[in-house]
Amino acid sequence: HTTALSMDLERAVASLPPRARAVLVLYDVEGWKHEEIAAELGMAVGSSKAQLHRARNLLRDRLEAHA
């Protein structure tokens, strides 16, 4: 069962818009700070936070749609 969830999660993450996906992975998986992500991706800190919020909402929607 865990495998199905992790596959769904991987697919959902892969389907995110590239910038939202990058921020989500760097912040939630790699543990970067928004300041580091903003510098790395050439965006404002506020944009990094907004992209993370967007990515999490999209993920939630996509995972709930599959549940």
Report the C-alpha radius of gyration, rounded: 12 Å
Question: Topology as H/E string?
Answer: HHHH
Query: What is the count of helical runs?
Result: 4
The fraction of residues assigned to DSSP E strands is under 5%
Shape designation: elongated
User: Helical proportion?
Assistant: over 70%
Structural class: mainly alpha
pLDDT < 50 stretches: none
Instruction: Write down how many β-strands occur, each being a DSSP E stretch of 2 or more residues.
Output: 0
Distance between the termini: 12 Å
Mean pLDDT: 92
Largest sheet: none
Describe this entry's structure for a reader.
The structure is a single chain. This protein is mainly α and 67 residues long. The two termini are 12 Å apart.
Short summary of the structure?
This protein is an all-alpha fold and 67 residues long. The chain is built from 4 helices and no strands. α2 crosses α4 (45-66).
